[in-house]
Every structure is written in C-alpha cells, then in structure tokens.
Amino acid sequence: MSRVMPGSVKHSEPTESDEGQNAQPNIRPIPQEKEENLNIPDGGYGWVVVICQLLITATTWGVNGSFGVFLDHYLTTNAFPGTSKIAYAFIGGLSISQITLVAPLVTFSARILGIRPTLCVGIVFETASLIAASYASKTWHLIVTQGLLFGWGCSFLYIGTYGIIPQWFSTKNGVATGIAASGSGLGGLIFSLGARKMISQLGLPWTFRIIAIATGVVNSICMALMRHRNMEIQPRQHAFDYRLLKSVKFILILIWICCSGLGYTVVLFSLPNNAINIGATAQQAATVGAMANLGMAIGRPVVGYFSDRVGRINMSAIASILSAIFALCLWTSGTSYGVLIAFAILGGLVFGSFWPMTGPVLVDVFGTRMLPTTLSVSWTLVSIPTAFAEAIALTLRRDGKSAYLFVQVFAGCMFLAATIALVILRFWPLVNQYGKRAKVNQSA
Fold first, then answer.
1. What pLDDT band is residue 242 in, cutting at 50, 70 and 90?
2. Residue 245's domain spans which residues?
3. Cα(241)–Cα(128) distance, integer angstroms
4. H helices within 311-401, ranges in order?
5. Which CATH number does the domain housing residue 118 bear?
6. pLDDT (tens digit, 9 = 90+) per residue, 98-120?
7. pLDDT digits (tens, 9 = 90+) for 252-267
8. How many domains does the chain have?
9. CB 361 within 8 A of CB 311
10. Does any domain span residue 5?
C-alpha cells in the first residue's frame, strides 16, 4: 500500500482548481481509496526493471552527458569550418529538448502500440542517428542526426519506460528511481572517457559507430526484459492534458523542473570547455566531465534513499539549494583544475537529482495513475528551456580565465529559483488555507 511521505503534498486531481472551486460536472476525481489499494509489490521483479531502466538511462542520458567531449572536439579542432559556437552548442541542447518535446507522442505510442514496440522504435532511431552522424560532413548533418534524431531515439527509450518503476515500488520508490537514474552518471562517465579516447585514436566517425553498436545491443536486451503492470495499475496515459496547467501545484513543479533543467544542462555541457579555458589539457577536460557524471552516479541513489525518509519534496528542495550553493560559491572559484574537479564531484551529487525525483514528486502530489499524464506534460514543456540552455551559456561566456563567471552565476540562480518553487509547493496547503480564510473574512 502506498503512503504519503513526510514533506509530500496530498495528491489531487488537476481538474479541480487549487483555489477551492468545484470541479467541472462531467469530470470526476480519482477516488482516494483506489489509489491506496493498488497492491504495489515494492520489489520483486521490480528490481530487474530498475536494472533495465538504469541501462536505458546510461545509453540515452549517459551518451548525452558525454556531449561536452564532442563539443570540446568541435570547438578546438574546427571540425566543421565556418560553424559558429552557438550552432555547435545547439546540437546538444536540441538533443535534450527532443527527449522531452516528443513525450506526448511517446505516451500515445505506449498506449496504442505497447511498451516493447515503443522501445523498438527508440532503438532504431538512436542507432541509426549515431551511424548517420558518423558520415556527417556539414553542420546541419550533425544537427539532424546527433541532435534531432538521437533525441527522438532517447525519448522513445527513456520516456517510454520512466513511469514503470513507480508501478513496482511505493515506500522504496525514491531509492529505486534514484538507482535507475544513476545510469545517467555511470553512462556519462563511461562514454565521456571512452569517447575522448576513441576520438583521439580512431577518429570521430568510428567513435559514433562504436557507440551506436554498444547502445543498440544493450537496449535490445533491456527491451526483452522490461515488464510493466499497466493491467493492474490502469494508468491514465493522456498525451497532453491541458487541465494540469490550471493547477498551481503543477505549475510550481514545472518551475522546479524547468529551472533545474536549465542549470543542469549549462553545468554539464560547459564543464569540459571551462577546464580548457583555465589551461587544462584535453584529457583533463574529459576527466572533469567524467567526475561530474561520477558524482551523479553516486548522488542520485543517495538522494532517492533519503527522499523515502524525509519526503520527496523536502529532499528535492535540499538538493536544489545545495546545487545553488555549489554553483555560486564553489564553481565561481574554479579558476584552477583542482577546484573544478571538486565542484564536478560535489555538484554532481545533487545538480541532476531533479531527473529521478520528478516521478516520485508527481506521484506524491497527483497519484500513481496520473503519472504518465503529468510526466508527458512536464517533459513537453521542459523541452523549451533545455533546447537553448547551452546556447545561453555560450552567449554569457566572456574572454579570459573568468570567462564562465556569468554562466556560473546564471546556473546558480536557476537552482535557487527551483528551490523557491519547491518551498512554496511544500507549504502550499498552508498558503492555500490562509488564502481561503482571508476570502471568508473579507466576505464577512
């Protein structure tokens, strides 16, 4: 049986406004007793699902997390002459934005075709995009392959399976999701170091091809082993439910996700070139990016573990404020290689934790059945800021050893804004109740 964690908000249906107005007559909220009797096993075969999700995350977000190495290669070697820095940065941002932008299409595919056909589409897109990127001779080739098509492949794989873990876990949902999300850090660590080595020894084309083969094989195995509980849970798989935008609680969650996404993308993609800027070698720059991914691999399960004990919203707020502190205090002091390594590891522990915590927070607020719908809307809208995150970072970059100062402050402010949104969400029941009392007093 599911339970409401400390620091969570009792979930409610988005068709009922937060101002206490009556729901529309033809829309009925989910009965609370059904949400409490979903008979979630809290383990069992769910741990196989966790491992599969970890591997899928490693071969999607992990590969994306290594883009900083590719970006540094493009910038330092002038791989495609005449291409601006903004255009190069747009490739990585486009990839991340596509993962979330096509979430409604993935949700629709999962509902109509099923999970395995959806994953099969993702495998084809991802593998084909990387192989096609190996033959790129112009910048727009990379934008279409490494950016657009790769993002679509990642979306069908990652978004297609993200909502399955909560079907298997209730009290351990946070730690299970955190373990699965650590695949982003592990994959980023492996692919960052591997890509750097392969680019220097085998060249860019074969680097793309080897990654394509590796991800295709791993994801095919995961597709065969992945198992959902849709028959038991009966999730609501709406591609885009606009009524969620009437919910203040959902808007606050959306602000948290978007601001965190901006900060996360800016940090992850900027670190390798930031290292080059302060005098580090190419190998040292790759190590900085790898250390950030190592921090995420360690930090996400830890954040998930404590979220099951102190509350998902509480722990997400703690991770967000720590991200802001590390960015504003430690990263801004990163004018030496050692300080940059320290920030990469410490910041990595927390600055990407919003990805694994989005699902558990949405479950706490809106319920398990509403998770596919709330995720679909969330991922779609977060695609807008993440698409331009690194382009914004390169625009803010200046010359000299303090070239990334404005970038660092920007990232820290985004994490700070995310924290404020979560604090308001945490105390929203009190704020809402106070507002109602004020209205009653005014009418009296």
1. confident
2. 42-438
3. 32
4. 312-325, 337-348, 354-366, 371-387, 389-396
5. 1.20.1250.20
6. 887 888 888 888 888 888 999 99
7. 999 999 999 889 888 8
8. 1
9. no
10. no
